[in-house]
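dude i think i finally got it to work??
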Amino acid sequence: MPVIFVTFFVLLVLGAPIFVSLGFASLAYTYFMTRIPDFVTLHRMAGGVDSFPLLAVPFFIFAGNLMNSSGITNRIFAFALAAVGWLRGGLGHVNVAASVIFAGMSGAAVADAGGLGTIEIKAMRDHGYKTDFAVGITAASSTIGPIIPPSLPLVIFGVMANASIGQLFVAGIVPGLLMALFLMVYTTFYARRHGVGRDQEFRPAVLARSFVVATPALLTPVLIIGGISAGIFTPTEAAIAACAWALLLGFAFYRSLSLKQLYLMSIDTIETTASVLIIVGAASLFGWVLTTTRITEALASGLLSITTNPLAILLIVNLLLLVVGCFMETVAAISILVPVLLPITTQVGIDPVQFGVVMVLNLMIGLLTPPVGMVLFILAKIAGLSFDQTVRAVLPFFVPLLLVLALITLIPALTLWLPTLLYR
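look at this
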C-alpha cells in the first residue's frame, strides 16, 4: 500500500505536474500490484469528470472572466469606496467590501487578487498607505471569494463528496461575512495604531449614484443564490445564468466588451477548465484506488483509534489541511483528500457541509503560504515586491483568518444555520 504514496510524492518532488503524479502513481499501482485491466482504470478516470455538477466549473470560470474584463471591477470599487471609504482606514475597508461583492460573481481567490488587486493596491499607494498593508489586506480579502457563493472549490468538494452544492453555497455566506468583519476590525486597529485617517467624506449623493451604476453587477449574486434557493435552477444552471447575465452587462448595458475580448476570455476559460478537469480525473482514479484497496479504511481506523471526539478530529484535520495547503493547489488537494478524510469525519458525526466549508477555508489560507501560494505570486508581481517581502506583508493577516477558521470549527451552527433554514 505505501507504494502508491511513495510514487506520488517522489514524482511531486521531481517537479512532475500534479495530474501526472496522481495518474502515474495510480496506474503503476493498478498495473503492477493489482493487475486491474487498463480499460477499468480509464473508465474510472472518465467517470470522475462525467458529472453534471462539474459543468458549473467552466461556466463560473467564464462568468468570472467576463466580470473581470468588462470594467465591472471598477464600478464595484467605486461603490465600495462611496459606501465605506469614509471610515477610518477607508481604503482598507473598501478593499474588503469590494472583495465581498466580487466574491458573489467570480468564486475564485486568484480572480479577485488579479482583478481587484491591481485597482486596490494602486489606489492605496496613491493615498499614502504603506505597500505592505495594501498587499496584505488585498491578499487576505481575496480569500473570501471561494467562501461566499458561487465557489469553484465548493463545487469540486460537492462533486467529490456527493454533497448538496446548494447547501454548500449558502453554508459559506456566514463564514465569508465573518471573514470580512474580522478583516475590517483589524483594519480599524491598524488605522488607529498608525494614525491613518479617512479617505473621503460620506456623500449620500455619490453613494446613490455609484449604487445605481453598480446595481446590475450587484444583482449577479442575487440571481445566483436567489435562483438556487428558490428552486428555479440548479447550481449548474445558475452558472449558465451568470454567464448570460455577464454577457448582457458587458455587451448591452455597460458596452465595455468587444468580440476580441470575448474570444480571448473563451480561450482562457477553456485552458483553465482543462487544467481543473484533468486534475479531477486523475484524482478520481487515485481516490478509487485508495478506496478499493481499503487504504482509506486503514487510515480512518488508525485515526479513530487515537480519538473519536469530533472536535479533536476536526482540529487534527485542520492542521493537516493547513500543511497541505502550503504545498498543493486547491482543486488537487480537495480531489485527493475528500475520499480519505470524509469517511473519518462522517463516522464521528461531522456534517459534510460543515466539513466542506472548513476544508475550503483551510486551503484558501494555503493560498497565502509559501512555497506555492498562488495569490502571493500574483500580488508580488502587481506590487513589484519580492516574494519574501510579499510573505512578510501577509503574515499579520493570518490572525483574523485563523480566528474565523477556529470559530467555524468550534461552532457548527455558523455554517449549518442557513442550510438548515433553507433546505432541511
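The mean pLDDT is 83.
im so relieved honestly
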